[in-house]
Backbone:
């Protein structure tokens, strides 16, 4: 007799086998998916390290690597920056937190920010502590530490406070200003200052400035055009307008920002 299997009951062993097969397939799918994600992440990180791709930042955060080594004055994500990376005019400034002329030029730089905005102008900070200013290098090291731990926003807040309180430069002030600027791990900041963790970056900034031909502060390169000292807003505006016109003409001709 031929058995009718259409309506035959399914044995528990048959049900279990199908469940196991489905479960194995699902687990295998997720393992393959995770392996693929890990592979792509490793590839992405390799391309960042090799300079094939860069992460872009505007005025906030220091995470993400980029390097504009082909600029007239090379800058990178290791430098504090105000404005957008693809702004057509870049102002690279070397300054000293104890220098009275550097303090005097700060309101003028604020005029530049207000007049042009972050889409047209970016400002990149580099340290140049003068040897006869005893508080300048410790302040610069603190500024680098604040940038590393809190990003661009924290740096510029700390920077503004430092220039408004030049007579109060000192370790206690650096720590308080950092906390006010949003740095969370104050213990790590203190330890870094005690160990001079950020001295090498300050020295590199100074050496880069000397290589560029500067000897005093403040000093500026506007798309590579040198502007020395605490000059009037009109002096900055003249150079910025000239460089902005050149840059816009190149962009219109097809040059990438």
Residues:
């Amino acid at each position: 007799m031929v058995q009718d299997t259409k309506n035959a009951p399914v044995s528990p062993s048959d049900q279990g086998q199908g469940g196991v097969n489905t479960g194995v397939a699902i687990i295998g799918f997720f393992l393959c998916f995770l392996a693929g994600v890990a592979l792509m992440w490793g590839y992405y990180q390799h391309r960042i390290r090799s300079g094939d791709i860069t992460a872009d930042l505007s005025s906030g955060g220091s995470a993400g690597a980029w390097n504009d080594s082909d600029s007239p004055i090379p800058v990178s994500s290791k430098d504090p920056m105000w404005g957008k990376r693809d702004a057509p005019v870049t102002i690279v400034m070397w300054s000293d937190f104890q220098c009275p002329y550097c303090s005097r030029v700060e309101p003028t730089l604020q005029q530049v920010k207000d007049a042009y905005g972050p889409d047209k102008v970016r400002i990149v900070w580099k340290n140049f502590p003068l040897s006869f200013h005893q508080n300048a290098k410790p302040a610069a090291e603190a500024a680098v530490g604040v940038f590393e731990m809190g990003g661009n926003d924290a740096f510029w807040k700390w920077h503004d406070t430092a220039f408004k309180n030049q007579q109060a430069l000192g370790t206690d002030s650096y720590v308080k200003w950092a906390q006010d600027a949003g740095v969370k791990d104050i213990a790590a900041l203190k330890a870094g200052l005690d160990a001079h963790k950020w001295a090498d970056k300050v020295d590199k900034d100074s050496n880069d400035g000397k290589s560029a031909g500067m000897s005093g502060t403040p000093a500026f390169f506007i798309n590579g055009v040198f502007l020395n000292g605490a000059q009037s807003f009109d002096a900055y505006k003249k150079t910025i307008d000239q460089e902005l016109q050149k840059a816009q003409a190149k962009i219109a001709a097809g040059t990438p920002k």
Summary: The CA atoms of residues 11 and 229 lie 90 Å apart. The longest helix spans residues 12-50. The two ends are 84 Å apart (CA to CA). The chain is about 55% helix and 10% strand.
